[in-house]
Amino acid sequence: MKSVIAGRAGQAALLAGACGLALAFSTAAHAQDAAAMAEEEAQPAPPAPDQVAEGNEIIVTATKREQTLQDVPIAVSVTSAKTLEQAQIRDLKDLTSVVPSLRVTQLQSSANTNFIIRGFGNGANNAGIEPSVGVFIDGVYRSRSAAQIGDFPDVQRIEVLRGPQSTLFGKNASVGVISIVTAAPKFEFGGNVEASYGNYDAVVLKGVVTGPVTDGLAVSLAGGINKRDGYNKDLGTGNDTNERNRWFVRGQALWEPNAQARVRLIGDYSKIDENCCGVVNLQPSASTQAIRALGGRVNGPNEIYANRVYSNIDSVNDIENWGASGQVDYDFGPLTFTSITAYRRLDAFTNQDSDFTSADLIGFNAQDQGIKTFTQELRAATNMDGPLNFLVGGYYFNENIRQSNQLGWGEDARGYADVLIRGLTQNTQSLSSIEATISGLTGTNYTGRFFVAGQKLDERYRLRNEAFSVFGQADFKIGDRVTVTGGINYTKDKKDFAASATSSDVFANLDLVQIGGTALSRGFISTALGTTDPLAIAAFAQANPAVFANLQAQASGFAALNRSLSTEAAAADANPLTVGNPLLALQDLQYLPPFLAVPNAVEPGRTRDDKFTYIVRVAFDLTDDINVYASYATGFKASSINLSRDSRPLLSDRDALIARG
User: Fold this and answer.
1) Alpha-carbon span 325 to 191, nearest angstrom
2) Looking at 109-260, which runs of residues are DSSP E strands?
3) Helices assigned H by DSSP within 530-544
4) Both ends of the chain: CA-CA distance in Å?
């Protein structure tokens, strides 16, 4: 089976390959294969209480209804609790060992994880860039990667759905879905506990206990810790990095007041506080030569991937993740009505040595982030023996993100800048001489003020995302072996955002184009008068005011022309020195300039997206054990907002942006 992912434009995804075969064996061999990873289909959906494999059948909640794996023609891998235990899977990052089409990568902090299915997906150290793989835990959407990592002692199964799932799951499921289903509380006492010890002093302890409170009420309590020493040696700080230090607790209650109604309440809290994640793959370059000139150390060409890193501060990853959800199911004749309400909060503070060397270039790169998410889903589904079954529903999503970043210079920043300036000017200039030159041109004393430790860029971001979906899907059975499926979804997504920054980096705040233009205009006047003596120039101006005024006008025009040429040269990646302003060669060293705030004259600070998506599928049971199907689906990915300084125009670009309109 092949799927071509539809992007934001809603391009179609063809889930077929001349009626690609989907094998599902309901024999004992089927159950064994499914335990390792059943290849079939299932769209993740809210969990059903106490739903387990019945005999040799694998029960999944792919289409948000309970069906056997054989009856769900979707590409899905189902990993059972037994496989999770035998494969020592501690969190979703470990799931790749049993689901080959899934790739999970840990980025440069514990708060950032990227999920990719069949080579497609997106994710970054950026809360504004929404994932293309939706992660659900007991029917509740986990919108950000830090909220998707955890140990689960009561997991019943994990379903990984491949291909567009936007019809039933709306935005951010254009690549696929990961659905984690945990066991509901049971009406008989039971539980389990697991403890393990491994190298690097790895300790894992987790367990769950469950039982009845009354005839209609059962509860469960799960918890665990996961600790391990770091396996990367930081030769800069002398400590180990890439450690694990996390714990969680999770409580559930299941109330069944009568045969028609079920209420399931879940609350959880998890904490991560660890030194992670070392960067070991730096390549030698001109920059690393400058670092070594300062006495700093980085990995050499023979040390890459040698489990050694160099930092001057330990990383900080302090992450709290908690939430509560309630699911209500009510059977009314052939219909089951379901409501899932959830509120989640994520608070993460991270800091790291982002130059990844033992030189103190970047003194700190801290991020303080808070995410609040509310979701509500309502749906009605049938489970009839007749030829027609359907599901209709609606979904509401509301999320608020606040984020602040600080990036500042360390004690070695001045020395590093001096080395780079000497290289740029062929040793004709130094940091001190540049400070003196700019002081003379501006009349402001900049001696000792460039690249000073503690100077920093402060960033602030806000993002509010509100979205809703309405969806429906129907299965119509023709005879005993043919099933035709059709589904449609309409999703509307609204984002409002703001961004601003202030910089105390003195050098980054300089307008080198204007300062250099001033120098050129002075040189123009000096050349015209044949002298550089300021007293002689002043005397000429006093004696010839009209002539001198004309010279000043020409000099201003010359400086303006140079500014224009400099801007064009920079846009064309031309050598700035060719337009006569030598200071432009130093623009690459303005690392921490303030950026243009949002909203502004050309950016309203909002996006609005909406899209219809659909699926059409025909499935045919060749035999009781073999099913073939052809499927055509579209997907939708709402626009993302890059909450990063790397995406913002500089404050000095404001006039040009407004002029371009």
Assistant:
1) 22
2) 113-117, 133-137, 140-142, 155-162, 176-182, 190-198, 202-212, 217-228, 232-234, 240-241, 244-255
3) 534-543
4) 47
pLDDT of amino acid 31: 35
- Could you give the CA distance from residue 387 to residue 35 in angstroms, rounded to a whole number? 31
Omega before 582 within 30 of 0, i.e. cis? no
Q: Are 603 and 635 in contact (CB under 8 A)?
A: no
Give SS3 for 587.
helix
Peptide bond just before 276 cis, omega within 30 deg: no
| pLDDT, tens digit, 9 for 90 and up, residues 429-450 | 899 988 988 888 788 999 999 9
**CA–CA distance from 203 to each of 148, 276, 591 (Å)?**
21, 17, 43
What is the token pair recorded at 472? 């429906």
Above 70 in pLDDT, residue 375?
A: yes
Amino acid 560 reads: A
Q: Which of 201, 199, 278 is nearest to 240 (CA)?
A: 278
Closest by CA to 69, choosing from 159, 178, 180, 168, is: 159
Q: pLDDT tens digits, residue range 47-101?
A: 444 444 444 566 667 667 776 666 677 777 777 778 877 777 777 777 887 888 8
